[in-house]
Amino acid sequence: MAGSQRLPLHTQRLMPRAGINRAFALLYSCAILALLYHHFIDLLQSTSMVPIFLLLADSILAFMWVTTQAFRMYPTHRQVFIEHLEHYVKESDYPGLDVFICTADPYKEPPMGVVNTALSVMAYDYPIEKLSVYVSDDGGSKLTLFAFMEAARFAAHWLPYCRKNKVVERCPKAHFGSSNPSRFPETDQIKTMYESMRVRVENVIKRGSISHDYITKQGESEALSRWTDGFTPQNHPSVVQVLLENGKDNDATGHGMPNLVYISREKSTDSPHHFKAGALNVLLRVSATMTNAPVILTLDSDMYSNDPQTPLRALCYLLDPSMDPKLGYVQFPQVFHGINKNDIYGGELRHVFEVHMPGMDWLAGPIHAGSGGFFRRRVFYGCPSETLEMNQGRQVSHSIKSREVLEMAHHVAGCKYENQTKWGRKMGFRYGSLVEDLYTSCLLQCEGWKSIYCNPKRPAFLGKSPINLHDFLNQTMRWSVGLLEVAFSRYSPITFGVQSISLLSGLCFAHYTFWPIWAIPVTIYAFLPQLALLNSASIFPKISDPWCWLYVVLFLGAYGQDYLEFVLSGRPTQRWWNHQRAWMMRVLSSFTFGLVEFLLKYVGISTFGFNVTSKVVEEEQRKRYQKGIFEFGVPSPVFLPLTTAAIINLVAFLSGFAQACRQRSIEDVFLQMCLAGFAVVNCCPVYEAMAWRRDQGKLPLKITVISVVLAWALYSASSMAF
User: Fold this and answer.
1) pLDDT at 500 over 90
2) Is 185 exposed, middle or buried (0-12, 13-18, 19+ CB in 10 A)?
3) Dist. CA 380–CA 428, nearest whole Å
4) Measured in Å, how far apart are the chain's first and last C-alpha atoms?
5) Rounded to whole angstroms, how far apart are CA atoms 530 and 454?
6) Which among 531, 536, 526 has a CA at the least distance from the CA of 643?
7) N or C end of the chain: which has fewer CB within 10 A?
8) How does it sit in the membrane (predicted)?
9) How many angstroms separate the CA atoms of 147 and 263, rounded?
10) DSSP 407-447
């Protein structure tokens, strides 16, 4: 092993833009302080409420800008060398790997998508005897179990096909649907088998029942018989079904297969189930009774593996003896396929995975993104210095189908098991927020654990992003409520972890948890200057006033930095424009509703339920999306802030233009005209959906009418105020 010191498993370097970011932050900070000083002087000299609103808006913008800079101080790039791994550990000594896949609704998350995800990780370039896949079905659907019975049969042919031909794209749907598919002697035969499986599963989903002709084994009939008349998604006993067992089940060539286990935890209407965090904790306990692998991978139902060597990349960090022993997990980015050319909804989440994650990597490490995280099992049982429970990482040697193992697995999957325990508070994934991934990873870092960001050139995982505006905004609204739950929870990282994290890490956490307060300044600037313009009132400095140009400098500075980061990463300008517009839409709609929903919940008036983002897409909707056409379609309240702002800004811009023509000068209303004009250009898809479109994705007339009434009400109220 002497050569191992000369052959590093990975490297780390600071990105060149770090120095530029720091210099820009210093100059921009001076401009922000000057603006706040100007607002403070105006506040002392004015009797109007306008300076108060402007000071509030710019103070929040300044706070959020400062937290954003924490990500830009130490942007980090890492590289791994899988070929050096053999110098550190033999393949037979690789740690066991348990993969957790969560699904919750067979109609919003089609089982074939979950099956493709499972098959892609079952085909990893990893010792079969050390690999186990656990599927959590929180919808408690026998249709999902049937789909995985079919998957287990197909895996017997798919795994040796991938192994023999060294297939890289090991998600069957992606492999066979590729525009330039690889061709091997068995390809047509395997594709026919896959299509046969897909048709059977989709027929079962469509009918809602399973034909007896599809049941080929006695054990399958017994497993499905547990779904009796009293079995409902909200009230049912635990179901643990071992579909494949390593050492017992072989593929078509006689080689062993990884373990595949289906789990539907016990549900009861009188017991809290804690959404996805509760499902993951059940997977933690059930897997501990069966395989107890020291490494765990968490995946969303649609986030399939795109690189069969991904586990080896994670091992380059987890098995490196020079790494900090407090390393708790390795996070891979979420990359989304099927996004249209210009990404009209900003679905690739570029800021999170290309700015935030690399920026946190130099600090305590990135947050967990809900999917694509390789965890040491022991991080879920306490701080690095504590004595760990349950013999973490000790491989279980008995059969996972034995009576004792299955009895224990059903027991730990029970809804009463966690009562009077530390689960959800000090152990496992943490309860108390709809964004259990961020909450858990923040608290793990506060306890002393660290993380690594691994972003290889070939994406490790590919998933789906919403392709209609309603799902996109609803998903963001759910995140907003969850983030505020983290910020104001009893174990908030902002207060609970002050002594154990750095200042920059604390600012990063603050940026995430207070994301929804963006809604306050954006709403103020989307309505207040425009309503003033409609009432012929000037609230900003005149164009001849030097303070006017400070606003221009701050606006262009912030947008200019974002634009340069975007285009230098190789993306087109049109995509950047769409991203900033999508961000404004999310802030104005999702963050506003999320903030209101959280406040109502906080005072006990309302509660927010977890809604699974639908992965089902209609063909016509898909065609419109690929053409770059916004999808409204449903009369949802989440569109009201967007449409109301679009109407007010358009009328205000036209009114300001008329005033400027009459006075032959825009001296007094230059900044207000610029704001209104900027909003009007951003709202072009809204105007199109309101007035010109006739397809099913147009804006419903009901929303347009309500928006006009709201705009008139705001104008009437502002007339009295101004």
Assistant:
1) no
2) exposed
3) 4
4) 78
5) 45
6) 526
7) N
8) Multi-pass membrane protein
9) 13
10) HHHHHHTSTTTTTTSSBTTTBSSPPS-S-HHHHHHHHHHHT
Tokens of 50: 């306008």
Cα distances from 504 to residues 84, 172, 442, 500, 536, in angstroms, run 33, 43, 13, 12, 44
- Determine whether the annotation assigns residue 169 to a binding site: no
Residue 276, annotated as binding a ligand: yes
Tokens standing for residue 111: 């089982």
Which letter does DSSP use for residue 235 in this model? B
Residues comprising the chain, all counted: 722
DSSP assigned state of 458: S
Instruction: Tokens for 234, please give them.
Output: 């909200």
- Structure-token pair, residue 596: 């209101």
Q: DSSP string of 330-385?
A: EEPPPEESS--TT-TT-TT-HIIIIIIHHHHHTTT-PPP-SSSEEEEGGGGGS-TT
Give CA–CA dist 591/599, Å, rounded.
Answer: 12
**Count of Cβ atoms closer than 10 Å to residue 317 Cβ:** 20
pLDDT at 21 exceeding the cut of 60: yes
Among candidates 464, 147, 97, 146, which has minimal Cα distance to 287?
A: 97
Residue 229 assigned to a binding site? no
Annotated ligand binding at 42? The verdict is no
Give the CA diameter of the chain.
88
Write out the catalytic residue numbers: 138, 437
Residue among 184, 129, 127, 119 nearest 156 (CA) = 119
Question: What distance in Å separates the CA atoms of residue 284 and residue 265, rounded to the nearest whole number?
Answer: 12
How would you class 439 by CB atoms within 10 Å of its CB: exposed for 0-12, middle for 13-18, buried for 19 or more?
Answer: buried
CB 334 within 8 A of CB 303: yes
Tens of pLDDT, residues 513-569 = 999 999 999 999 999 999 999 999 999 999 999 999 999 999 999 999 999 999 988
| Nearest to 332, CA basis, from 451, 450, 504 | 451
C-alpha–C-alpha distance, residues 647 and 530, integer Å: 10
Cα–Cα distances in Å, from 112 out to 158, 254, 301, 505? 15, 26, 10, 40
Report residue 722's pLDDT band, with 50, 70 and 90 as the boundaries: confident
Looking at the DSSP assignment, which residues form a beta bridge with residue 373? 298, 331
**Amino acid making up residue 252:** A
Q: Among 650, 640, 652, 642, which residue's Cα sits nearest to residue 718?
A: 652
> In this structure, are residues 520 and 489 in contact, taking their beta carbons and an 8 Å threshold?
no
The answer to whether 624 and 504 have CB atoms below 8 angstroms apart is no
pLDDT digit string, tens, across residues 141-173? 999 999 999 999 999 999 999 999 999 999 999
Where residue 499 falls among pLDDT bands split at 50, 70, 90? low
The per-residue pLDDT for range 661-710, each reduced to its tens digit, is: 888 788 889 999 999 999 999 999 999 999 999 999 999 999 999 999 99
Give Cα 671 to chain centroid, integer Å: 36
Amino acid at 116: N
d(CA 331, CA 379): 14
